[in-house]
Amino acid sequence: MSTSTAWSAxxxxxxxxxxxxLRELFATDPGRAERYALEAAGVFVDFSKNRITDETLKLLLxxxxxxxxxxxxxxxxxxxxxxxxxxxxxxHIALRAPKGTQIFSDxxxxxxxxxxxxxxxxxxxxxxxxxxxxxxxGKAIKTVVNVGIGGSDLGPxxxxxxxxxxxKRDLQFRFVSNxxxxxxxxxxxxxxxxxxLFLIASKTFxxxxxxxxxxxxxxxxxxxxxxxxxxxxxxxxxSTNAKEVAKFGIDTANMFGFWDWVGGRYSMDSAxxxxxxxxxxxxxxxxxxxxxxxxxxxxxxxxFEKNLPVILGLLSVWYTDFFGxxxxxxxxxxxxxxxxxxxxxxxxxxSNGKHVTLQGEHVAHDxxxxxxxxxxxNGQHSFYQLIHQGTxxxxxxxxxxxxxxxxxxxxxxxxxxxxxxxxxALAFGKTAEQVKAEGTADWLVPHRVFEGNRPSNTILxxxxxxxxxxxxxxxYEHIVFTQGVIWNIDSFDQWGVELGKVLAMRIVPELEGxxxxxxxxxxxxxxxxxxxxRRK
Length: 536
Ligand code: F6P
Description:
By secondary structure, the chain is α/β, with parallel strands linked by helices. It has three domains: 5-87 and 287-487, Glucose-6-phosphate isomerase like protein, domain 1 (Rossmann fold, 3-Layer(aba) Sandwich); 92-284, Glucose-6-phosphate isomerase like protein, domain 1 (Rossmann fold); 495-535, Phosphoglucose isomerase, C-terminal domain, CATH 1.10.1390. Helix content is 47%, strand content 11%. It is built from 22 helices and 13 strands. α11 (242-248) links the parallel β8 (235-239) and β9 (255-257). The termini are far apart. The relative contact order is 0.13. The model has no long low-confidence stretch (mean pLDDT 97).
């Protein structure tokens, strides 16, 4: 892309606008806040505090057109195998398509199967929620433990935390992901085998961490229930791999399937969301799917100049590739969204952390930014200092809600006042004149100046509902898609996670054994050190 006409025009334009301050942009353009705002699917976005003009937007939109974004969106929605390195369709949008819609992969309409699984999940979730699903000794389930990692963990845990307000409070939910034994040990130490249900969530059902934890969970269960037959009541599987599920000993009747056209990081609305559905109930889960779908439709059919994921995706490219921004902060002002930045890290970085184009060449521009964040206002008291006065440009998304789900005193006004104050401070800062006028001693003035000109988007919705959560997740999914198209990379594979996995499996027997080590000198010495400690 960096050789395209639009790219060169943007590079030129960047030189012209690079030093222009948001103060000036606002002072000379009173209509800016109104013009640079969009609303879709219940989400309002003010993107006026970005370092852009009408010309920037025009050029960014040309970039999208030159990259063929329109055709690429159509290709995804029509089931084309746009994940070229794995020769797969990319159809997470089918997971939330209403009954009766037709979406094809390999000539087969996938929507009926999606609804079959959803119905099966609903039946199961209702039975667990009502107490009709019994453990081996006839007791109702009290705790649901999701065992999975990556997309099979981050989506479920994020959605559970985000929608906790809607969850059935007499059921508890735990999430085990890490191969570190501490995770499963802490998750199970106070649980009763008779009332615990494990959901083993793994697309491949071969992932080391999940399989290790699943086997440990089974041992823990059998220690209490002492009968292999108990597994059927206390384990269900969520996977695309029926063969491996059966091998593990889970009845495939208790398996909830999905398909290879759902990427792990795009799977929280597939059967991988079973824990979410048990927590919030099938109706709320379907509301969440409706939110996803509304944003899908907006993305698919709205002209780019009014298309939220397209505009936000292009703005992020503007900062990554022209301003050289290395990172991107996502700052939800809602405690329920505390795991949202972690979820987005996999979505954005596993998708767009690529240095090779679709044609297999090294990219000539930067790709995926480092996404990070924490809920506000906590972040304000830890890392915001660097965003305000550090040397790096960190574009940020502020996410807030008009109403709190827990209206306590004036907490919500205080929370939202901080959203508005932070974006204002970032954009406009405080000049040396202003600082001096406050009577600050001359030597102290430079320390108290806020340069400003730090860009942000403000994303607002009425209330954090299941539907709004679906809309927000789909918004970011399609931002990632837009970025990937501009960067001309495959956003849907993840070869970069393979090498470490292979090397670890080679090292496992070496830790147990005493044979000669054939790594580099550093790795050899580290393994030796561990071996010695292990023998003590
Ligand atoms: O190793 C990365 C990854 O493949 C992710 O893409 C995926 O979400 C995670 O591992 C878990 O995979 P699975 O659901 O197959 O266990």
